[in-house]
Design brief:
5 helices; 68% helix; globular
Length: 94
């Protein structure tokens, strides 16, 4: 499965998850050609960090234009729901 499609599904199913909000922030930064803190990406667990790297790779290739638009819509929706501050740590699950 393509990383962009995986990310869209993750964002749509877990919009309140702080890690998902970081993935959404990455997508929005890529689309707007702005920046995202590497420290934010380092807060992700291994699986989601790998997804972030896959997104970067696919975005760079720019082969999945339609999928990117759907992912961008989902990411914008998550950001509208409330983005976590860049310096705040992710909550630890017990």
């Amino acid at each position: 499965m393509l990383a962009i499609k995986k990310a869209r599904k993750l964002i749509e199913t877990n919009p309140g998850d702080p890690a998902v909000q970081i993935i959404a922030a990455l997508v929005l930064a890529l689309e707007s050609e702005s920046s995202i803190s590497v420290a934010q990406l380092y807060k992700l667990d291994d699986k989601r960090f790998e997804l972030a790297l896959e997104i970067l790779n696919e975005w760079r290739l720019d082969r999945h234009y339609a999928s990117k638009l759907r992912l961008l819509d989902s990411s914008t929706m998550v950001q509208a729901l409330g983005q976590i501050p860049q310096d705040s740590p992710l909550p630890v699950s017990k």
